[in-house]
Amino acid sequence: MSAPGRRILVTGVSRFWGAELARRLEADAGVEQIVAVDTEGPARPLARTDFVRADIRHSLVGKLVRGLGIDTVVHAGLIVDPQQAAARTVHEINVIGTMNLLAACSGADTPVRRLIVKSSTAVYGSEPDDPSFWTEDMSRRGPARDGFSRDLDEAETYVRDYEIRHPQVAVTLLRFGNVLGEVHDSPFARLFDLPVIPTVLGFDPRLQFLDEDDAVSALTHATQGDCRGTYNVAGAGVVVLSQAIALLGKIAAPVIPFIGGTAAMRVLERLGLVDFPAEFVRLLKFGRVVDTSRLHSELGFVPQRTTIDTVMEHGRSRRVRGLLDDQAPYRYEAELEEFLRSRGRRQPDGPAATTSNGRAPAPRRRRTRSTSP
Amino acid sequence: MTRAAPARGGSRRASSNGHGAHHTTGLAPVARPAMPAVPLDTLGRLASMLAPSRLAAMRRDLPATAMAATGMLALRLRDLTGRDVIDLESLQEVISVYYRANAVHEQHQRGEFDIDGFGFDREWTEALMPIFRVIFRRYWRVETGGLENLPRSGGALLVSNHAGVLPWDGAMITVAVYDAVDRHTRALIAGWFGALPVASWFLRRSGQTLGHPDDTLRLLRGGELVLVFPEGVRGTGKPWSERYRLRRFGRGGFVDVAMRAGVPIIPVSVVGSEETYPMLADLQPIARLLGMPYFPITPTWPLLGPLGLIPLPSKWRITFHPPVTVAPPQGEDPEPWRVMEVADSIRATIQQGVAEDLRQRQRVFRG
Questions:
Q1: Which residues contact A11 (CB under 8 A, 6 or more apart)?
Q2: Does A332 touch chain B (CB under 8 A)?
Q3: What is the DSSP code (8-state) at residue A373?
Q4: Quick one: pLDDT band at residue A276, thresholds 50, 70, 90?
Q5: pTM of the model
Q6: Which range (B84-98, B101-115, B267-281) has the least confidence?
Q7: Chain B contact for A192, CB < 8 A?
Q8: What residues of chain B lie within 8 A of the CB of A127, using their CB?
Q9: Higher model confidence: residue B302 or residue B87?
Q10: A236 phi and psi, to 5 degrees?
Q11: Which DSSP string corresponds to B113-131?
């Protein structure tokens, strides 16, 4: 890319992905300017990043791109954990936001030369007769079963359309697997935080995990390089759910029935016992494993931690402990308080800001069901 | 990952010919390294919490104590009667299998095991193998032929006829191959098995995977022995009146995959599986309701309830035919006419093999 400094626009800095990426890019001397666009403040204190409080659904983004001569756009704002916000907000950000962001980068005279989009392996779905490894060229056979996956599909379709219309722009689409780690909040992190882990009776899915550091490294690597294409990103190796639970020293409780599991999960969710997206039960039944050979060979990125290392490291960093382990008492709240104080600011009480940086100390806010379309 | 040194080989030898070097020292409980009082399962965990750890240790050693007592009894009976009333070697076999399975189970409880990307757990499968070997030898008295046609290394596609409602033929071919060349067979299963509780993980854990062309190619290129039943559920859901008549061999997809992977095809003919569950009728409405490909009526099922699931003790023969080398595709894709030609010739080989084996087998249930 152009030698004297790249000008990068990053979306989604109010959440883990965007904020961590901006922080890594700040350390890169080859990056002249970083512009962060989001409706909420950054999840991490950022030094030389210019923060613009704007909605990516607004046409202002287009003016920003042209006015600043942005050459690289990183769309890290795609929500891949539907529990991060209400269903309608997720739809607005993922579909309308992506559409508008791409519109802002379009046109024959666009200064944009690179587009990096963070997506999720959730686009492959999770069915009993899935192939053992999903490669990037495959797509699931049936239609999406829930609104979140449909939205993700639509967002990816916009990205593909953009790629066809703008051959001069190198588009990179990264599909991330399940991310675990100290800070990042994800459905599996919430599952593994439970004292007894509910599993689906008679099922033991194959899963892959990616460490949060590796996730951000992959995104940074793709941003700094100029390799186009679609890539699955996940840790090496495969773990079955029962093994992950055993490695964390927890107890599995096969309480989710294999017929009507989603409905049972809804009941548990209403009772405030669990907080999982709709398609999560299917993942707990049938699992999902992606082929990451293209990530290694073409993008030249190899995650530091394997799937099993990620699970074990997650257990250590989150101080996840089993019911029966006699270790020191859980001191997470104190640590969290300290962390929040060190940041010197409180999260504004907005729908997208619930758990962008670790666990909120208060119990999770219940979403009103009526908002789902 | 750390992993306890597996007792591979030793216990397998013990179970395969009954002359295990490991357990010839006597019938007293086999000396085991002192283990931390890690309870075996959830119930065990609770038990050890409630009761002194002594109880848990007793519970753990109970089977061994029982075995030792049986051993003493066997010796006493031999002294009294002058002949082996209880087969001591079988007893040792059972003990070694029990400890092997127990060790693997404990490793699993700690999460210390490796699976490959398809979900195959080698140690776990090898710990289970003796159970299937007993069925292979004592129940169906399987006779094998053409074992020299099995390759000791490299990928190959085993193609077999399929019959008998439940896929026992796959398990028996797996045992035959494992005992002959010490390799694990990776069978391709129908997609709907993935939706069945227990079966979904059991089949994957023991090395099976779904019959997806991409999966097959991946396994073959990885140098695995892949077993495929081109008849699929059309073969297992065949009525009794059509026994030993092979159904259509899919759409020749298996030949296509073998050509792409550049591996030989080994035709396998199985006789005996047809008689395990003689399917007298097929209740399609119930099958559709349950989402199954067929709902069989056999002389014992569903008349005797769960007992009807016990297969009949027919006499089996499994023959491995000489490998068929398939030429790699000239261009990008294998030519369809060549694929169909090879598929038909493989089917003919298996059909002839089945006829030959039927001639060799004098009685259906005896022998």
A1: A18, A36, A37, A38, A56, A73, A74, A75, A76, A77, A97, A101
A2: no
A3: -
A4: confident
A5: 0.81
A6: B84-98
A7: no
A8: 194
A9: B302
A10: -70, 150
A11: ----TT---HHHHHHHHHH
Spacing of C-alpha B353 from chain mean position? 22
Give pLDDT tens digits for B262-272.
999 999 999 99
Q: Are A130 and A114 in contact (CB under 8 A)?
A: no
Amino acid code (one letter) for A99: M
Mean pLDDT of A246-270: 84
Beta bridge partners of A35: A9, A50
- How far is residue B286 from each of residues A295, B241, B281, B293, measured CA to CA in Å? 47, 21, 12, 10
Q: Which two tokens stand for residue A221?
A: 């690597």
Query: What HEC string does A163-195 produce?
Result: HHHCCCCEEEEEEECEEECCCCCCHHHHHHHCC
Asked if A132 and B215 come within 8 Å (Cβ–Cβ), the reply is yes
In sequence order, the 6+-apart residues with CB closer than 8 A to the CB of A140 are A123, A124, A125, A127, A130
Candidates A117, A8, A116, A2; CA nearest to A68 is A8
- B206: contact with A, CB 8 A cutoff: no
Cα angle B213-B216-B218, degrees, rounded to a multiple of 5: 110
For B228, phi then psi, to 5°, come to -130, 145
Q: What are phi and psi of A214, to 5 degrees?
A: -65, -35
Q: Is A221 exposed, middle or buried (0-12, 13-18, 19+ CB in 10 A)?
A: buried
pLDDT band at A372 (very low <50, low <70, confident <90, very high): very low
Predicted ipTM beyond 0.85: no
How far is A105 from A112, CA to CA, in rounded Å? Answer: 6
| Dihedral pair phi/psi, residue B364, rounded to 5° | -75, -45
Rounded to whole angstroms, what are the CA distances from B297 to B247, B279, B293? 20, 6, 13
Kindly tell me the burial class for residue A75, based on how many C-beta atoms sit within 10 Å of its own C-beta (0-12, 13-18, 19 or more).
buried
The per-residue pLDDT for A349 is: 46
Mark which residues 85-114 of B lie under 8 Å from A by CB.
108-111, 113
- Round to whole Å and give the CA distance between B104 and B127: 7
Average pLDDT in chain B: 84
Give φ, ψ of B324 to 5 degrees: -105, 120
Write out chain A residues lying below 8 Å of B108, CB-based: 242-243, 246
Angle, CA of B211, B173 and B236, to the nearest 5°? 55
Compute the C-alpha angle B328/B334/B336, nearest 5°.
140
Average pLDDT of span B97-108: 87
Cα–Cα distance, B300 to B311 (Å, whole number): 9
In angstroms, the CA B68 to CA B29 distance is 6
Distance from CA of A321 to the nearest CA of B (A): 14
State the amino acid at position B315 in one-letter form. K
First-last CA distance in chain A:
43
CA atoms within 13 A on the CB side of B357: 28
